[in-house]
Design a protein that fits this description.
Radius of gyration: 21 Å
Strand content: 5-15%
Helix content: 40-55%
Structural class: alpha+beta
Number of helices: 19
CATH class: Mainly Alpha
Length: 422
């Protein structure tokens, strides 16, 4: 128990946040389910993590549960803004709201967005082609975040003139999702939460007066017609969540993917010439260096177990998704970056004898990420298009990691574009 606690402490420290993977392996050596202290269990195994994510007896930390061990969280807008959203609600409220929002992210609707995503990618690349000789650019600021911001804002109905506001606000707000939070980060999150709540309250009022063909109008209409299905607080919380989640994880996914492609030029070449399936590359990035590294649940009662390990009432369960995705019982040679492990069985380089199920990076069970299909579509569209348009794309200096563990990504990723290919 003491060894596990020491490793978890290292994981939360700056060095552990920069590179958590060696610490995951040290925890894994203690077993797939490890007790850290009487009130906390850590899970590193894939089947064990999936078991918890799917089990109804393990709850997210909703407002009622948080109030029992963190009574002052309601004093901070940054901590309570998202509590009425689907992210931090349990049954039956979670299902009530999720059914409504999920209608926007069905396979058919996401597939129908493919032409718009392609057009958005090409528009960003056209802009880069015009400045290809101007020196290095930051991939994150100039592309990785602009693409998903544009897509989710278009879905929501956020005016184009306002979209530049949201990356810094999202970065500040999502600090509250981290396992550790400094006072200055909490103050910035509070300011961001107030600004986001005010923005969406004003936008909802506009859509009440002038409905349009967008998600804000749909949700406003639902809230007005049936407050029991969606209250005003839930409306604002879910709009903020959709905006933040709609691009924060996808932007980090794109940055992590490009960093992996720079380190593995053979994969970049195969993606560029089409011999590597773009979806397979995205799934391997999600497995090998996921933009969401961990999540947590709380045991609802004292009769819970995880892989036979008893878990007492209100015990926290820390699910290390980044570790579960490298479980050697699930994936062969898991520390190796190998996008061909997800290559369709009929594709070049595929190994039909080693099927690989998708990683847990978007979760599993009732809280599976609503935007997973859209994130995959955006990444699978953007990465091959980027490499084909700029065949000489190369790093322009070291990439700077964000000091985050839960939402893992880069702060900057400077690149040389080189001459455009077409």
């Amino acid at each position: 128990m003491f060894e596990a606690a020491d490793i978890v402490d290292e994981l939360m420290a700056p060095a552990g946040r920069r590179d958590p993977y060696p610490l995951y392996e040290r925890l894994r050596a203690l077993g797939p389910v490890v007790r850290v202290d009487p009130s906390l269990v850590v899970v590193t195994g894939y089947p064990e993590a999936e078991e918890v994510l799917r089990a109804p007896g393990f709850l997210v930390a909703d407002a009622a549960l948080r109030a029992q061990y963190e009574p002052d969280f309601l004093d901070h807008p940054g901590q309570y803004l998202l509590t009425p959203s689907v992210l931090q609600r349990n049954a039956p409220h979670h299902g009530r709201m999720r059914t409504l929002i999920a209608s926007v992210f069905t396979p058919r609707r996401v597939a129908a967005l493919a032409p718009a995503v392609t057009a958005a990618v090409e528009g960003l690349l056209d802009g880069w082609a015009d400045r290809a000789g101007d020196g290095p650019v930051d991939f994150l600021d100039g592309f990785a975040f602009r693409l998903p911001i544009g897509v989710i804002c278009e879905l929501l109905g956020v005016p184009a003139a306002d979209r530049h506001l949201f990356r810094p606000l999202a970065a500040d707000l999502t600090a509250t999702l981290e396992a550790t939070l400094e006072p200055d980060e909490l103050a910035a999150a509070d300011r961001a939460a107030v600004e986001l709540a005010d923005y969406f309250a004003a936008l909802a009022a506009e859509r009440r007066a002038d409905p349009r063909d967008d998600l804000v109008s749909v949700l406003v209409r639902t809230a007005d017609a049936d407050p029991g299905r969606l209250s005003d607080r839930e409306l604002i919380a879910n709009l903020a969540l959709l905006l933040v989640a709609g691009f924060e994880t996808t932007g980090n996914l794109l940055g992590n993917a490009l960093a992996r492609l720079f380190a593995h030029p053979e994969a970049a070449d195969a993606l560029r010439d089409g011999t590597l399936d773009a979806g397979a590359l995205v799934d391997e990035v999600l497995r090998h260096d996921p933009p969401v590294q961990l999540t947590s649940r709380i045991s609802a009662d004292g009769d819970r177990t995880v892989a036979g390990h008893p878990v007492g009432r209100h015990t926290g369960v820390l699910l290390l998704l980044g570790a579960a995705n490298r479980d050697p019982r699930r994936y062969r040679d898991p520390a190796r970056f190998d996008p061909w492990r997800f290559q369709p069985a009929t594709g070049p380089g595929a190994d039909p004898d080693r099927p690989a199920g998708r990683p847990l990076s978007f979760g599993s069970g009732p809280h599976y990420c609503l935007g997973a299909r859209l994130a995959r579509l955006e990444a699978a569209t953007a990465l091959p298009a980027l490499l084909r348009r700029f065949p000489a794309l190369a790093p322009a200096g070291p990439a700077a990691r964000r000091d985050r563990l839960v939402l893992r990504g880069h702060r900057t990723l400077p690149v040389h574009l080189g001459p455009p290919g077409r």
